[in-house]
């Protein structure tokens, strides 16, 4: 067998270059050290002039044109054989993307579709019945507030009127029985008093509008949006639906809004009173 190794006649020692020199070394424009260690570098043109590699649109064909001369050479370095051979799975995943199999989420048959619809209607009816019982209990508690503790002629606190006005101007001028009961229980006020307050303010706003626009017709219902939430119809102002969807205006959410605004107004009222008391004390100290 003819060896591909050759030694230099003018030198007694064998250099690494001469020991691993291949006959076809000068025919190849690159060496093992000039190739990148990354397997993906074969997919891009080399900066040292790999003019013999013809790039195509397919990365797999580029790999084939590069790997054939490397495997044919018996003197190729071991590091080149390890680093230049990419995994077939990686190249396939980069060249093409196979989406996952689509899956039907809906019912497959008419029986399943009818069963799902019936189950939805049953849940909806159960929720409506449960809410009706809850509203009935709230109204009973609101109507049972002792009239001796809160007579109908008693003036309401300032922050209470501000909360009611906020509900009237920004949420709805037509609260239902559940919301009126929640307001009455929260403020420990009579149910009929809260209900009459909204009715009187609707009439007051209508009178003011007719005084300012005598030729125009006052239509409060036209400015409201009718929604369905928890199985009952509500008429809300557009400002109430700017940041909250229709299904979010549940009884619990409405009560949270009332609690937050009542707390803010109560703290504001206390701070203003504290500032007034402090200013009065400072004035007394200055005059005294």
From TrEMBL:
Q: What is the first-listed, main subcellular location in coarse terms?
A: nucleus
UniProt cross-references to InterPro entries, sorted A to Z: HD, Homeodomain-like_sf
Subcellular location(s) of the protein: Nucleus
Composition-biased stretches, type Basic and acidic residues, lie in 21-30
Q: Which portions of the chain have biased composition (kind: Low complexity)?
A: 31-46, 84-95
Top-level lineage group: Eukaryota
Q: Where is the composition biased (Polar residues)?
A: 1-16
Instruction: Region Disordered: list its residue ranges.
Output: 1-98
DNA-binding positions: 149-209
The alphabetized UniProt keywords are: DNA-binding, Homeobox, Nucleus
Please give the Gene3D superfamilies that the UniProt record associates with this protein: Homeodomain-like (1.10.10.60)
Task: List the GO cellular component terms.
Answer: nucleus
Q: Under the GO molecular function aspect, what terms does this record hold?
A: DNA binding
> Which Pfam family is one of those matched by this entry?
Homeodomain
Tell me which residues make up the Homeobox domain. 147-208
Keyword Lyase recorded: no
What is the protein named?
Homeobox domain-containing protein
Q: Which organism is it from?
A: Piloderma croceum (strain F 1598)
